[in-house]
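Inverse folding, one chain.
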């Protein structure tokens, strides 16, 4: 205020002197003839040597606003922000301790904030009000939050889910969405503050990630959990479980749905085990527990009365699901370990294994030739072979067996199945296994060199030896394979 008063007084005195000179007819056409001009020459006008700038700074940074002036004389230099005076001469007028004058009249602002953005004027306090203006823009890294703030969105199966997040920053951040728990990484889903999923299913449940990025520092993100309320769905690892008296057996059911512990209260999921139609409860031999979405029924010291049909039942407020599992003492289905291609023209070594806690009492092997020509494929009649049970086991309950099928036709395709019996009965028929005999015009020595031999207990010995075969042998084998496949699909 005092500065303004001084300026007004100076202006008034200057006006009075001008009027006085005019009233007395003093001529100013020749300044050198005026004795006052010689004693008091006119002052040289102040001049800014700094230039106006546009300054961009990230929040928290320190910025400097230069203001250098030549020929300031007795004039006062002011820093203004809008109408507010920040400094006057060497004095800091504002109470904000972040502002400081460096050498000369350069203004420094520490730890800049978003509200520091705007125009700053360095002004010479004379009647001409000459200004040097700097424009300050404060860049703010992105921030993001979920809507709702809990980050949980719940929707019924078949409905529409809307996920939303809000971002702020300067410049305005761009927003993108991805699926955090995707099996194929984190694919890009959409752009914009909302992600809409229509006709949602159980598979849509999971964590979705909202990214905000404006190029200032690193992108930020927030996770939203989508919960799809649906009737339970059950899958089982095995529909048939082999068990032995005195051993331990375990049945497993996987319940798909909202079985995550923190969300089960939303629909009151219940899991029950039945044997036949009787609800089971834990006892000294039977336990029931769960880990994640897997539910286990464990039976220790199995008895014959434990064999039978079991079911796992899952129920919530939206529906009910059931899956069946059979637990039996009968042998498990046969698993084949032989290579697909025989080493011989007229015979084939078949190797398989069967799981059975009791001893195997009888083996039944059936095989037949597939009749093929250019127009059709027709199976021949089954050859039925009854085999003696094996005398040794590879493990306590795993039996490995081998049998050489003879009198086969060269260059032919055969298929075989195997059944096994113990004191509880016959097992289920195995899956059909196909094998091929060699062409009759292929030299025996090339066959043995190329295909090698299948060691008992190592069904992959053929492949291991084939890797070390010569180039010529490989070409022979590839020719056989190509011919066999052509004949198979004609």
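Residues assigned per position:
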């Amino acid at each position: 205020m005092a500065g303004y008063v001084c300026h007004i007084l100076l202006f008034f005195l200057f006006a009075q002197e001008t009027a006085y000179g005019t009233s007395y007819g003093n001529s100013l056409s020749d300044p050198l003839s005026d004795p006052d001009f010689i004693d008091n020459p006119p002052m040289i006008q102040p001049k800014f040597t700094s230039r106006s700038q546009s300054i961009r700074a990230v929040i928290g940074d320190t910025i400097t606003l230069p203001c250098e002036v030549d020929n300031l004389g007795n004039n006062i230099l002011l820093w203004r922000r809008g109408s507010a005076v920040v400094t006057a001469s060497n004095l800091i007028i504002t109470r904000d301790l972040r502002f400081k004058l460096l050498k000369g009249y350069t203004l420094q602002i520490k730890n800049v904030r978003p509200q520091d953005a705007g125009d700053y004027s360095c002004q010479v306090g004379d009647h001409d009000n000459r200004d040097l203006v700097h424009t300050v823009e404060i860049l703010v890294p992105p921030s993001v939050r979920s809507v709702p703030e809990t980050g949980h969105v719940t929707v019924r199966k078949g409905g529409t889910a809307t996920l939303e997040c809000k971002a702020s920053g300067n410049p305005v951040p761009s927003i993108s969405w991805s699926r955090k728990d995707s099996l194929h990484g984190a694919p890009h889903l959409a752009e914009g503050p909302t992600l809409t999923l229509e006709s949602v299913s159980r598979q849509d449940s999971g964590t979705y990630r909202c990214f905000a990025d404006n190029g200032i520092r690193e992108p930020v993100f927030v996770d939203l959990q989508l919960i799809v309320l649906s009737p339970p769905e059950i899958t089982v690892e095995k529909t048939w479980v082999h068990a032995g008296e005195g051993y331990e057996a375990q049945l497993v059911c996987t319940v798909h749905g909202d079985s995550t512990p923190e969300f089960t209260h939303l629909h009151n999921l219940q899991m029950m085990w039945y044997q036949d139609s009787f609800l089971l409860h834990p006892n000294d031999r039977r336990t029931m527990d769960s880990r994640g979405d897997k539910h286990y029924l464990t039976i220790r010291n199995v008895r014959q009365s434990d064999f039978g049909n079991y079911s796992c039942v899952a129920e919530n407020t939206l529906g009910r699901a059931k899956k069946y599992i059979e637990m039996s003492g009968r042998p498990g289905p046969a698993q084949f370990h032989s290579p697909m291609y025989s080493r011989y023209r007229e015979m084939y070594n078949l190797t398989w294994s069967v799981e059975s806690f009791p001893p195997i009492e009888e083996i039944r092997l059936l095989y037949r030739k597939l009749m093929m020509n250019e127009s059709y494929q027709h199976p021949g009649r089954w050859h039925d072979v009854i085999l003696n049970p094996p005398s040794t086991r590879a493990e306590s309950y795993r039996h490995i067996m081998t049998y050489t099928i003879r009198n086969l036709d060269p260059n032919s395709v055969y298929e075989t199945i195997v059944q096994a019996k113990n004191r509880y009965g016959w097992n289920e028929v195995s899956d059909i296994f196909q094998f091929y005999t060699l062409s009759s015009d292929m030299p025996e020595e090339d066959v043995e060199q190329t295909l090698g031999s299948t060691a008992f207990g190592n069904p992959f010995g053929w492949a291991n030896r084939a890797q070390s075969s010569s180039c010529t042998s490989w070409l022979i084998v590839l020719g056989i394979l190509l011919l066999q496949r052509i004949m198979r699909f004609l």
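The chain has a mean pLDDT of 80. The helical segments are 2-23, 35-39, 444-451, 461-466, 471-489.
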